[in-house]
Automatic annotation (TrEMBL):
Residues 1-44 form the AN1-type domain. Gene3D superfamilies: AN1-like Zinc finger (4.10.1110.10), Rhomboid-like (1.20.1540.10). It comes from Halomicrobium mukohataei. One of its GO terms (biological process) is proteolysis. It is a multi-pass membrane protein. This is Rhomboid family intramembrane serine protease. It comes from the Archaea. It is found in: Membrane. Keywords: Hydrolase, Membrane, Metal-binding, Protease, Transmembrane, Transmembrane helix, Zinc, Zinc-finger. One of its GO terms (cellular component) is membrane. Residues 298-319 have a biased composition (Gly residues). Pfam families: Rhomboid (PF01694), zf-AN1 (PF01428). SUPFAM superfamilies: AN1-like Zinc finger, Rhomboid-like.
């Protein structure tokens, strides 16, 4: 059961406002009944109905959106229309499709972990010029194991929708891709720096995984509502700032070489830290636009976070 954000009434079947992200009873479900910030945009059709998926692209003369110029149907009944408000699920779907492809390529003679496989799915410090791996590595995860992708999926599934509802599908997609890519680049950048300073003899392993993006999402929520309570298994209330702070400490400790007991030897700690910092910064830029929930439940099927990333597999840094 949830409580109405306006009156505190317990509601078995709450209504969720798509403008401000709040949860309300039947009496306060309408925007005008709970002083919704989205009312400021009510006179602007774009502010009320547009998720930003097909915003206009200024080419010097046209006034229509990109979809109009390409004669692509992005309306509610179209295939592309599905992605409005569903960027979180789209990212999750791409993660699992990529995970499947990581294994299916064996059927065409590409062994898992081989040079070609790594050039497709892994961001390698030896080949930062492989620009496509800046993004494919975000959706790729440690092969032959469900733990890595499952943990990342949990945090993105439970936390991603809140952030997407707050900033919109377009901005969420940009946040996910940019934070994931910069997290990976930060990790291989650290590897190059350590070699340059003679702290290690050779470049480290490549990196893959969506934990950088997952921690960016957590960072955003931490700024928007630091007291957001995450109920682990419905019993243990933990404020999100404590969870984020834990990952911050562990990541810094791992970078300094004193966190092996927590993270193991193949975790991309710099990627975690970069993603978290990006999320904290972005959250500070968008804070105050709308409301966020006050609690989440995690465990047994409830709403809540998962821990992004996980211990690394041999030969690759998982993040």
């Amino acid at each position: 059961m949830s409580k109405c954000d306006a009156c505190g009434k317990t509601e078995n079947m709450p209504y969720r406002c798509h403008h401000c992200g709040g949860t309300y009873c039947s009496e306060h479900r309408l925007p005008e009944a709970h002083d919704c910030p989205g009312l400021d945009d009510w006179g602007d059709p774009d502010g009320v109905f547009d998720s930003g998926f097909d915003d206009s692209v200024d080419d010097g003369g046209g006034n229509g959106g990109l979809g109009d110029r390409l004669s692509v149907d992005t309306g509610p009944g179209s295939i592309l229309g599905y992605f409005r408000g569903n960027a979180t699920y789209t990212m999750l779907g791409l993660m699992w499709v990529t995970f499947l492809l990581q294994h299916l390529v064996v059927l065409v003679g590409i062994p898992i972990g081989g040079p070609t496989w790594s050039a497709i799915f892994t961001l390698q410090p030896q080949h930062p010029e492989y620009v496509w791996t800046w993004f494919t590595s975000v959706f790729s995860h440690a092969p032959l194991s469900l733990g890595h992708i499952a943990l990342n999926s949990i945090v993105i599934f439970f936390f991603g929708r809140i952030v997407e509802d707050y900033v919109g599908s377009k901005q969420f997609t940009i946040l996910f891709l940019v934070s994931g890519a910069l997290a990976g680049l930060g990790q291989i950048g650290l590897s190059h720096l350590l070699v340059f300073l003679d702290y290690q003899p050779a470049l480290g392993a490549g990196v893959l995984g969506a934990s950088g993006a997952g921690l960016a999402i957590m960072g955003v929520l931490t700024v928007l509502n630091p007291s957001l309570r995450v109920y682990l298994y419905f019993l243990i209330p933990v404020p999100i700032w404590a969870i984020t702070g834990f990952y911050l400490i562990v990541s810094v400790a791992g970078i300094l070489g004193v966190g092996g007991g927590f993270t193991g030897g193949n975790v991309a700690d710099m990627a975690h830290l970069v993603g978290l910092v990006i999320g904290l910064w972005y959250g500070s830029q968008v804070k105050g636009q709308r409301r966020t929930p006050n609690q989440l439940q995690f465990g047994g099927g409830g709403r809540g976070p998962g821990g992004p990333g996980g211990p690394g597999g041999p030969g690759r840094g998982r993040f």
